Amino acid sequence: MRFQEREESRGGLVDLPQTRRVNPLTVVASFVAKTFTIAELEARKLHHDSTELITRAVQPALWLLVFGEVLARVRAIPTGELSYLDFMAPGILAQSVLFIAIFYGIAVIWERDLGILHKFLASPTPRAALVLGKALSAAERALVQAIIIYLLALLLGVRLNWTVPALIGVLAVVLLGSALFSTFSLIIACLVKTRERFMGIGQVLTMPLFFASNAIYPIAIMPTWLQVISQINPLTYQVDALRLLMVTGGTTVYGLAVDVGVLLAVTTLMVVLAARLYPRVII
Amino acid sequence: MIVLEAEALTRRFGELTAVDGLTISVESGEVFGLLGPNGAGKTTVIKMLTTLLPPTSGNALVAGFDIIHHPSEVRRVIGYVPQLVSADGALTGYENLLIFAKLYDIPRSERESRVREALEFMGLTEAGDKLVRNYSGGMIRRLEIAQSMLHRPTVLFLDESTMGLDPVARKGVWEHIERLRADYGTTIFLTTHDMEEADGMCSRVAIMHLGKVVAVGTPAQLKASLDENGATLDDVFVHYAGYVLESGGTYREVSRTRRVARRLG
Prior knowledge:
The complex is a heterodimer of chains A (about 280) and B (about 260).
Chain A lengths: L6 H4 L13 H25 L2 H6 L1 H17 L9 H19 L2 H10 L1 H6 L5 H29 L8 H29 L2 H17 L12 H9 L1 H13 L9 H22 L6
Helix pairs in contact in A: 2-8, 4-5, 5-8, 5-9, 5-10, 5-12, 6-9, 8-9, 8-13, 9-10, 9-12, 9-13, 12-13
Chain B lengths: L1 E12 L2 E12 L3 E5 L6 H8 L7 E6 L2 E2 L4 H7 E4 L11 H11 L4 H14 L15 H13 L5 E5 L7 H18 L2 E6 L2 H7 L2 E6 L2 E6 L1 H6 L8 H9 L9 H14 L1
Parallel strand pairs in B: 3-8, 3-9, 6-7, 7-8
Antiparallel strand pairs in B: 1-2, 1-4, 4-5, 9-10
Helix pairs in contact in B: 3-4, 3-5, 5-6
């Protein structure tokens, strides 16, 4: 079987591809297509083996069931108009997205150790498309989490907002949050380069990110120094947006525009940084 | 016609000079072998030529493109099979190829037929829909070569492509590489520390030792350059590189090498 007949001219430098005329539209289309190709790869993997998705759902379930149910009875946390469970459900959604995303970088170290990454980097795929594709891959897992959390919340009687704009909004914020933290994770992976060090740093980061945010209590009840930290924590803005969109009667502290603006800006910064660092992971 | 040309290519890692002033040129349609023990700098050369690692100094032209200033053009015209396992075990062989067909901008209308052809060329048609984690080592290597050939590269880089394979699988990979060259005129640039592989497959070899090329020529020329009858490439190697005590590389390299061998075996 021959690959094709074009080969005679392919043998040497005869028909060198000239540096092509670049049409910006083609470049963008190709960039988007390649980003989705990387994401498609993850979707295909999940299709072959989805057990991980189920086990990942255990932790948020425990938070909602145990922590949520108990704190709802204590009534120690001022949550305004919302019941504590209604208040907490968006926080737990953001948390489970965070926990998946923040460890996503380890997949890159794993691929580096195998040699898969080398081949991607030697292909004509823009670095930013590789990074953004990975961010989307993490978002695929996050979406599955979101579905599971919606089901749990429904069972627990959380008053979910089922209007279409609200659902689309939640989807967008979950995608954005997942992209942000998975790219952050990728940056760490590019810097530390080994699984052991990465796991250590991942463990150190998750809890502060989660507790120094408005996920399970409002920022207003924190001491001032912690309030400052919470306000530079992007998770806070993700939770704030979700709290408006996910539950009936939900409110926002900063406003949706600020929330989405912050998330978009930080994600863009992360992608740019990660694209620069990405080739370094194999050196 | 010269298809690959390196000029004083050098790479340092801190104190260590991994590749020291490499100057070589490779003709179109050749199977060119870079020969040397572990740690001689072969993989570093390949990483530079495939644009994965910027050289400290010097430069190279691959298919007419400069690796420093036009890395993305270089990436379009080369194929690369890394030393480590680069096929994704959680996907099928078909999917592994499909993803790369997309990344290499193979037009949608041709994708399916090219992927099927590549599977057939490498003798993997029946295994195409099985998960790669169930493949044998030889099959994985053949799949990886298929991946790297989908876009018909001008130069194919193979880094220790038969390491960790048993003799039968190794022979299978050799036959397929030879057919690639014969059928498509692909220039092949490979590294190996296996003298038998170099002798049997390469039209020319360069012997590398401690980051430097110490001899270049056809296997026959190199053997003839020694004044003994029936000299083997092993003898040539010893002559030019001196006795190399088991260097074996660093801890990290050894653990990687063993992991690859385990996975492929």
